[in-house]
Design a protein that fits this description.
The structure is a homodimer. By secondary structure, chain A is an all-alpha fold. In chain A, 85% of the residues lie in helices and 0% in strands. Chain A is elongated. The model of chain A is unreliable at 1-13 (pLDDT under 50).
């Protein structure tokens, strides 16, 4: 049942993919950057920062990737559980279910007479009736079964790609504080560009959005740096 | 406009809060655990692991918390932009908008005659018409304006709370590999319990869900440990 108009369906599909990239990339840029920045204030060798950074990227991309996979899988399981329940309700308590259809039409503003007629028409076909209940009583869209796997890959790879940006200066430069300067410039620039395009996609003022995303990265790194200095023995 | 039935509204509200806690907590348990595990394979002092862990928790909770805040804020901005556009469309191209209402009713299975009558009734009141378009053409629910701030706090605090579990053994025990054993037991147990309740809430088989979540944590930690050993100089 395609009740959204066509152009909107397209919008929703692309935004799933983009949401995954945005989630993975923004955390991948921010968290390894902040971790490396924090350690720069606490240790004197870049080796330990690179090892910690790589461990963090491996951990983060797997956790986020599998997290994305699980989220997709859970959504699918949930949909199928509810679908079975709706079929059994339409079978066993049709009058109560018909009342729920009428309530929907009452809430969108149809007259009493129209509510009854519309509920009669909807409930003539069982599949149509259940599809209606799933979408408009429960607010559930049928999830794409392949989406869980795609989502996992997109998020995980974006996280890893994002994480290599702040970490790379520590590989080529010897002292932590020197590497931190280049890492900060590279990462904050990337966050700005990333935030700009992310905002354009979601229809927000892109300059404001870019500033917001950059500020989060700077704040997280600053906090990590301060906290690590505080706990340094 | 409350078109979802009452019990479902309640379900959706609690699941927003739970989603935040679940997002924050599962990443908070998983990523600092995996980072500490990775470093345990690469360094000989727990001090550096505690400093890195605390830096990561500070960075992660700020990045995720502000990330949650931004996501909520973006949703609100997006809703308001679309709301203005719908009001102007209903004003300027009412015939086209009425066609879209009819298309909606055609897709859910109403007869041609009912589509026309229902579209007439909906479009009699401009606010009702726009609310209908927002929700059923665009699939947008009015976001709670306070939600962005609440979401930020919930996610950030859950991340920090989760992160202290795997890190605590490294504070009280001297050698990394000994601390890792206790950290692994504590964290995997927490992930199991957490995964169990998370699955119960989302209506999934709780034992299967608990296993899934625990497995992600173990895999992320294992990968971080392996990768850190590989890159260790």
């Amino acid at each position: 049942m395609d009740t959204h108009l066509h152009h909107e369906e397209k919008h929703l599909r692309s935004s799933n993919f983009l949401t995954d990239i945005v989630i993975g990339m923004s955390d991948g840029l921010t968290v390894p950057f902040a971790l490396a920045a924090g350690l720069s204030g606490a240790v004197s060798s870049n080796t330990i920062i690179v090892v910690a950074g790589i461990a963090e990227i491996a951990a983060g991309s797997i956790a986020m990737g599998l997290g994305g996979y699980l989220a997709g899988k859970t959504e699918l399981d949930h949909y199928e559980t509810e679908l079975k329940r709706e079929y059994s309700e339409v079978e066993n308590i049709p009058e109560k279910e018909k009342e729920e259809v009428k309530t929907f039409f009452a809430n969108i503003g149809l007259s009493k007479d129209m509510q009854d007629k519309a509920a009669e028409e909807i409930s003539m076909d069982k599949k149509q009736w259940v599809d209606f209940m799933m979408k408009y009583e429960l607010g559930l869209d049928k999830p794409d079964p392949k989406r869980a796997t795609k989502s996992a890959l997109n998020i995980g790879l974006s996280y890893a790609a994002g994480g290599l940006v702040p970490l790379s200066p520590y590989i080529f430069i010897d002292t932590p504080l020197d590497a931190l300067k280049i890492s900060a410039v590279l990462t904050l620039l990337s966050l700005f560009v990333f935030g700009f395009f992310k905002s354009r996609i979601t229809g927000i003022n892109p300059w404001l959005g870019a500033l917001r995303v950059t500020l989060i990265g700077a704040l997280a790194a600053g906090a990590a740096f301060g906290v690590a200095k505080l706990f340094q023995l």
